Amino acid sequence: MxxxxxxxxxxxxxxIAFVVPALLKKNPxxxxxxVDRNAMNVxxxxxxxxxxxxxxxxxxxLAQAKQELEKTLAQDLTSAEVVxxxxxxxxxxxxxxxxxxxxxxxxxxxxxxxxWDLVNKAEAQPTQxxxxxxxxxxxxxxxxxxxxxAARLEEQPDNLEGWQMLVxxxxxxxxxxxxxxxxxxxxARFGNEPDILSDYAEFLAKSNQGxxxxxxxxxxxxxLSVNPKHAKTLWLLGLAAMENSDYEAAIAHWQAVxxxxxxxxxxxxxxxxxxxxxxxxxxxxxxxxxxVAKQQSPDVKKVSKIEVQVNLAPELQDKIKPGxxxxxxxxxxxxxxxxxxxxxxxxxxxxxxxxxxxxxxxMRNKNLSSVPEITVMARISSSGGARLxxxxxxxxxxxxxxxxxxxxxxTINRIAP
Length: 417
Hints:
Layout: H1 3-23, H2 28-33, H3 37-54, H4 59-87, H5 89-113, H6 116-124, H7 128-155, H8 160-173, H9 176-190, H10 194-207, H11 215-226, H12 231-243, H13 247-258, H14 266-286, E1 305-312, E2 325-332, E3 339-346, E4 352-357, E5 373-381, E6 393-401, E7 407-412, E8 414-415
Parallel strand pairs: 1-7
Antiparallel strand pairs: 1-4, 2-3, 2-5, 5-6, 6-8
Helix pairs in contact: 1-5, 1-7, 3-4, 7-8, 8-9, 9-10, 10-11, 11-12, 12-13, 13-14
């Protein structure tokens, strides 16, 4: 391929890079609640791989397990890509037309007005500099394209999608200094965007052997203060908490992600539940006999869990459909109606008995132990959404005084209007 054609292709790609992102711009509400599935899947793959290497497996068994794990990762990444594509389907049609039209118009115009014969002559007499350029390969071409993108952004500094493309390009190139410098420019211009803050925190952690201590954790806390439901931020904060052996905080962060996911995201839900289970195992393993405490007053009783039996009224049995989701949660009877503990199960498991405890809180210090009285609720959702919707099947018991009872029976007996 001639130097002329290479340069033409690069310039065409740069043109497309500035037009297409604007057409594919995400809805802010959607992007703030979306889950970075690839980041989760890769992280879990690494953790599971480390676990396999610690197990007493033969060389053949280990090789087979790694192969299956890699296959699962590939499927998960592909699935995540398909979900992302489906969500952006409306913008793709126009984007594809534009992406095709730009090079077609460029080629057609040059065909009419350009000078192909001069290009052919240049190809027939390659110079030493041309051969040297060809030997540099695609790496130098990519570097040149990134440099032109950076120059273009100096002229169009309000193009957030362009800045995101640039900073990710620097990260791929392994240019730590330019990546950090560009992230700082983005934050200075666009403020505390949770997407940017979480991406920056993830980059810094990866550059420091996966450790979130220091600035990455500060960035994530800032992102969470801007959007307490930002899924990627919550996911990464869970990893940071695990790194710091704060297993209850990790569980709380991942529970907050879990309740946002639709029921169709089965693989992500299963992955989060495995991570939560692992954190609970750490908690159980770290529990050691405590020293004998001073005797408390008889009227003081610290309760951090409650057993909940959930039944479905006979008249609503025919309302359940395959794939419906059951939410079981407790909240304070007064004040902010945020769940103090929440659990998600398939509705097909009814009737069911579960235990709600402090490890299932969505926020630290906002758990069962923080209030004297709660309302226990059970809800069946066909959409799998965390918010109450018309048509959901609901049951509740209130008030429940934690100092007086540790068991409750909830019957789902009404349909939400």
